[in-house]
Amino acid sequence: MFWFAVCLLSLGGADWLPKGWLEPPSASAGMVQIDGAEFRPFYPPNEDEKVVHVAPFRIDRRPVTNGQFLRFVTWAPRYRRGSISPLFTDSEYLSHWAAPLSLGDAVAAEEPVTRVSWFAAKSYCQWRGARLPTEMEWELVAAADERSRDARTDAAFVARTMRWYSERTPRPPAVGRGAPNYYGVYDMHGLVWEWVLDFNSNLVSADSREKLSEDKQRYCGSGALSATDVSDYASFMRIAFRSSLQARFTTKNLGFRCASSTGAES
Hints:
Elements: H1 2-12, E1 31-34, E2 37-39, E3 52-54, E4 57-60, H2 66-75, H3 118-127, H4 135-142, H5 155-166, E5 193-194, H6 220-226, H7 233-243, E6 254-255, E7 259-261
Parallel strand pairs: 5-6
Antiparallel strand pairs: 1-4, 2-3, 4-7
């Protein structure tokens, strides 16, 4: 049905598409419920609060795919390559697609969409009636392996995660091919990096004009001292990567998934 709809679009425009194809899916379609939990973040909010409470939420089982994002840009012309404002993305936005409304032979519909900016990812999730996950929500789910909620101190889990971080993957495989984690969520590690709602909030937390800025506790030696686990290098790499981004940036290995607060449309 997906490729049939794309062919009809190329022939005759949106009027030829099957009824409902351009309508957004349910906010919670493909999501899994995550119960509220106490979580120990890599960087605690302050010295006296090492553990935070994460409220219940839902999160996509899999990252958003090229096929799903194509459906979105078909519905929203302003987010197509060549039409989106340069204020909201850089020049590499969806540059691996063959055309604004065609993936081409080199891009598979079931592969995770990449080269999308934070603005575009956020708008896609809003189209679904959802949002991007917060960093705390994403990290809570990413801490799980196949057997436990928090495997961050498990040597095998850490080694597997770090192995992916050190490898070059020119083209990601299709989503959902590996084993799901404890929550039933796929591809938190090993496929692509992912946008979060508050991607740039961790290392920029105070006014840098202040002489005794709190930011000084997040860099170099001070950054290690303020971390809850100095051996959790994978978490530090993710935070450092996110903090290097701007909302309009795109990269060939940066995608996203959506989330929603409990109580959203089901």
